[in-house]
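A further point concerns the way the authors explain their paired sequence and structure data. Showing the layout once, in full, would remove most of the difficulty. For illustration, here is how one protein appears when written out as sequence plus structure tokens:
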Amino acid sequence: MPDRHKAPGSRPGQVGSPDRARPPAQEAASGAGRPRPETPAPSLAPRPTEPGGTAPPQVTDSRPTPLPAAVGVVPARLGSTRLPEKMLADLAGQPLVVRTAQGALASGAFARVIVATDHERIAAAVRAAGLEAMLTDPAHPSGSARVAEVARRTDGQLFVNIQGDEPLVDGEGLRRLVAAFADPAVGMATLWFPLRPEDEDNPNAVKVVADAAGNALYFSRSLIPHPRARDGFRPRKHVGVYGYRREVLQRLMDLPPTDLERVESLEQLRALYHGIPIRLVEAARDSVGVDTQADLDRVRATLERSL
């Protein structure tokens, strides 16, 4: 018997509607028969910058890159020809060599600074100022040989030879020199500064030329290159501060002197002759050495103005 509550042709459970399939278009429109898509979870990745928008803030480390650990060594020999015992000359109440060591320490470039000397009088003056001194062999022929002895007796992998008679220390230049050793390819480095025109014919102002990689090609007391056509080229003055990795310094000391070194009286030519590259680093300012009484008077006046 037909269900009297059910209209003919109606779907089961659907009262009063005709039992016929809806057109496909209606099925698609209604979404019938399809699972409902899930709402995606919000992305935690930063959104790309939209045109006219603002990029998300970048987190950067503002701390300065630490310098490689280095030992500063100030060779200081008591004997000197043109200005006797100049290392102990008074500069604004302190011996010259003490002023140099203090400037090197104040640069922040070194874990420690050692005055390497051949005489107890210099060692005593340095220690009285609260600085570190080491007595070294009086027979050493050069400052670098004295530095090499310190390297043999001291922990460390990087040593910098600081001229004891240059008390107006270029602290920024020392930091740049030490920073160059962050490159593992650098085994030896030194400083340079643009040569003043009045020093072009001065043999005491050593000149240097560089290759494309920034390494030294040659050092000379003569003007190099010869200025046949300058074309804006400015010669470079060598500033006699050297940095060495321990193994390079020891190798250099084991090598015999060369003819070039003897002719120019420039020890660094031994390194170039034997194929040891020397990286050139621009100093922040020119060096001022003390070789004569006039030099000492100029440096003394400069220091007194700055104190």
